[in-house]
Amino acid sequence: MSLVQSLLSTERYGIKCPYQMEPEGVCIHNTANDASAKNEIAYMKSNDNQVSFHIAVDDKEAIQAIPFNRNAWHAGDGGRGTGNRRYIAVEICYSKSVGERFVQAEQRAAREVAAILKGYGWGVERVKAHRDFSAKNCPHRTDMDKFKTMVQEELNKLNGASNPVNTSAGNLYRVRLSWSDAGSQKGAFSDLNNAKKCADDNAGYKVFDKNGQQVYPEQISNNIIGEGAKVRVVGNKYATGQDVPGWVKNETYTVQQVSGNKALLKEIVSWVYINDLALVSASAAPKVTIEVGSKVKVTGSNYATGQAIPGWVKNNTYTVMQLSDNKALLKEIMSWVYIKDLILM
């Protein structure tokens, strides 16, 4: 990151950045004028308006005015709003007349944002638009899907991964230690084979689709990890989102209960995603494999299409009509469900 620092005087903190902050992400803005980054920073620092931002970026430079451990008034979501109190604000200059200067400012902003993500161990999902926090059409010029793809490409470079073909950030295969550990992400790829190669080049890494389903290597099935199985924890997050301490990974645990894609470990009374477990030994009586004709119940929250599963669906028993990779078609409701979200009856 090549930030130029022109920091606000601490005497001005009470107006512009009164609160300590532990940032959670980056919020993108367009300035809606044609002033340079230097002029934007100078004006913000000199006036008495409760309007502020951390960084302004133009085609020549990126300038930081407020430290990342202080809040800024930029998101329009109030004194306790998540945007104002938890997000680093980045203003992209020259959005009024657009043109080549604005294009270059966006490109520079993507590099700066990627460097912030890298520094905090975040993924591109931590990048938000001003409009995500309040009813203002900002950024009014920047296409957020394209911008996130630009950021991801820059992040891939910083992480030493090859870049994917330019595509919407929502349709990429992500390479991580676990889906819950976004900070471990090595790259995001439109081509599954490129994602697999990245995972193979980084020990312990896996490939996940846009829904968070592990597609490579073949994930451990709920039918293998059942109650009584002995496992080790390989992921960095519990199912609650809390960090897994290092000492936890040195022990073997007993699966006390399985629910959907999570397992309850008896010795530490903690839920862990099955994708984040390594099988040491199977339970004495492993479950029978689900096959065509099996009678099953649904335990997951989403169909394979991503749509939410209504509560009443989970109260009935269904017949497996067809299998395709890690999905099953249920005859009675003609819907595809991930096999990991089914239990045999």
From TrEMBL:
Keyword vocabulary terms for this entry: Cell wall biogenesis/degradation, Competence, Hydrolase, Sporulation
Superkingdom of source: Bacteria
InterPro entries linked: Amidase/PGRP_sf, Amidase_domain, NAMLAA_amidase_2
EC number: 3.5.1.28
Limits of the N-acetylmuramoyl-L-alanine amidase domain: 13-140
Example of a GO biological process term: sporulation resulting in formation of a cellular spore
PANTHER family: N-ACETYLMURAMOYL-L-ALANINE AMIDASE AMID (PTHR30417), N-ACETYLMURAMOYL-L-ALANINE AMIDASE XLYA (PTHR30417:SF11)
Similarity-based family: Belongs to the N-acetylmuramoyl-L-alanine amidase 2 family.
Entry protein name: N-acetylmuramoyl-L-alanine amidase
Organism this protein belongs to: Fervidicella metallireducens AeB
